UniProtKB/TrEMBL annotation, chains A, B:
Pfam families referenced in this protein's UniProt entry, alphabetically: LacI, Peripla_BP_1
Keyword Transcription found: yes
Organism: Companilactobacillus nuruki
Protein's recorded name: LacI family transcriptional regulator
Domain HTH cro/C1-type: 3-49
Classification via PANTHER family: LACI-RELATED TRANSCRIPTIONAL REPRESSOR, RIBOSE OPERON REPRESSOR
Domain of life: Bacteria
PROSITE patterns in UniProt: HTH_CROC1 (PS50943), HTH_LACI_1 (PS00356), HTH_LACI_2 (PS50932)
Annotated keywords: DNA-binding, Repressor, Transcription, Transcription regulation
GO molecular function: DNA-binding transcription factor activity; transcription cis-regulatory region binding
Length: 333, 333
DNA sequence: TTGTACGCGTTATCAT
DNA sequence: ATGATAACGCGTACAA
């Protein structure tokens, strides 16, 4: 087993000073090609690696960022976090991924820890409604970007989100185009800015097609794992219902299975479109239509902006909307 | 905005030396109750937080661990990682979650980075078949535990895995008990120790019920998103097939939708059981039976062991098997 | 082009 | 019970 080498060891082994080694490693200052080769050779031979604790301390920079995410086992979140982490790694940053479980106290605890660890930047995914960076001690010090849920004050951050409104609008509109006369929206009981946007898109698509939104007839809130009874009731009261726009794919599959259980034929009797384009959508029967968020783009834009903020090459106050795409499958044809 | 306080500032503000402040913070050495109160008061007022870069440098310990995971958007992995991260955080450790995408080069790159960042321990989830910690520079220095996939050499690590064999055996056996005469296994084309264990469990359940395993008739390897044709073919050749044990839920739903597409009735004509108990199993139609891994237990045991190894209160060489549980739903009744 | 010396914030050792 | 100080590994201003 090898021992752990420090920059001092490298200096001694290559017969130069630590300053020179440092310069070679970081390509700073000037040095002869000869010493460069000599030093690099020793580094290679010894397998020397930078001690980041020392470097961080000296430079007051950690080459790491923190990501706050509500639930990493949610497909959309996992997907975008994964892509962000990959891009960050390729750009020399490592990532603390923190699962807040939608708990504001946890969020704060994580933020303090991340601040203490000296992260250079923060990525907040769908944070608490009242997300407030000012709870931290060095508020103006740590730059942060927000994804998915609009923060209260957008002036000191960059906001990146999908075009939830347009996605909902397109999905609902396509239900009409496929022949639906009375589509409704199936949602959960959490209120996030994305959920609000999706609801608005649904409403506007309704009115564009000559219908007024009535929450008692055009909306169902799914709160249980088996919503068969609730849906049965609603359908009995409103037999004209012939389409569902679900606020996410989990609710869409929930609705789908309930409808099948009630003997409905999909898409003949009732059509369904979900949101997020989860992998299993192609394995449901019938296959599930869904609105796909561009997680590649979201991740790329997020990393560009957080690193930009860290390097002072980007500015806050921006609000970036990423287009979405409706994926038509059997459930809405 | 507050400035950033160092231990030196706290010392000055409370009229003691930095040494005393350090002692109070870490509850080391001895100090009067009076100074303790005084110092803590200043800390509270200033919002002082430890600078971990400095602490790490001094103590040669980072209070952080790295997790290598093949694919965080896989439900099982996301779930166990999430729980591990939570427990670690509660025990004062932060976590670098690294997505290796089943790429050995990436795995190595991550390991080097983590080593450089000075992580105190490593958690390897389902790592490369040839996972070899000796590629690192300080091999004997960083303790690690392995989850899910058995490492080549188990003597210098702790291995933690579900009882895949028993899960597969129970699932297959329950198919027989539900009336199946000729169940087959649906698998993917990756070979992992867990996949091998599950296959063996399936085989043994077969022979216990008087059948010999024949890979051309008792096994189908799913490689595409739509396996309808392949399944159709196999069913035509072997009309006696009346049950599927799928190696995971993704393949199970894939098979399920194909069978429905082929006009089969589930579970009347053919019964299905999957593996991992993913959330959407209860939203498929019919609901999907599955073998549930105890991710709570896995996470807890993992953290106990890695911290144990770090603190030298645990030893390597152990192999811990976590029981699984068959969840019966409509697809196999 | 290269070397010396200092400081980053913390903990630990040795005094007092 | 408390204080002074060395040491951790690194980057850099300044000197040579």
């Amino acid at each position: 087993m090898n021992k752990k080498y420090s920059i001092k060891d490298i200096a001694e082994l290559s017969g130069v000073s630590v300053a020179t080694v440092s310069r070679v490693i970081n390509n700073n200052g000037r040095f002869s090609e000869e010493t460069r080769k000599k030093v690099l050779k020793v580094i290679k031979k010894t397998g020397y690696q930078t001690n980041f604790s020392a470097k961080n301390l000296r430079m007051n920079k950690s080459f790491s960022v923190g990501i706050l995410v509500p639930d990493i086992s949610n497909y959309f979140f996992a997907n975008v976090v994964q892509k962000i982490e990959k891009i960050l790694f390729n750009r020399g940053y490592s990532t603390f991924i923190c699962n807040t479980a939608r708990d504001e106290n946890k969020e704060l605890a994580y933020l303090k820890m991340l601040e203490s660890k000296g992260v250079d930047g923060l990525i907040i995914i769908s944070g608490a409604k009242a997300f407030d960076i000012s709870k931290l001690n060095s508020p103006n010090k740590i730059p942060f970007v927000c994804i998915d849920r609009k923060p209260k004050d957008r002036s000191n951050t960059v906001f990146i989100g999908s075009d939830h409104y347009q996605g909902a609008f397109d999905a609902t509109n396509s239900l009409f185009q496929a022949g639906c006369k009375f589509p409704i929206i199936a949602s959960h009981n959490r209120s996030s800015s994305s959920a609000v946007d999706r609801l608005n898109g649904f409403k506007d698509a309704l009115s564009k097609n000559g219908l007024d939104f009535d929450s008692s007839r055009n909306q169902i809130v799914i709160t249980t794992n088996d919503s068969t009874n609730a849906i049965d009731l609603l359908l009995k009261e409103n037999p004209q219902i012939d389409g569902f726009f679900a606020i996410n794919d989990s609710i869409a599959t929930n609705v789908l299975s309930s409808l099948l259980r009630l003997g409905k034929e999909i898409p003949k009797d009732i059509k369904i479109i979900g949101f997020d384009d989860e992998p299993q959508d192609i394995h449901s029967y019938p296959t599930l239509s869904s609105v796909k968020q561009d997680t590649d783009k979201i991740a790329q834009v997020t990393v560009d902006n957080i690193i930009g903020l860290i390097d002072h090459t980007a500015i806050t106050g921006e609000s970036i909307t990423i287009p979405v795409k409706l994926i038509q499958r059997d459930s809405s044809l």
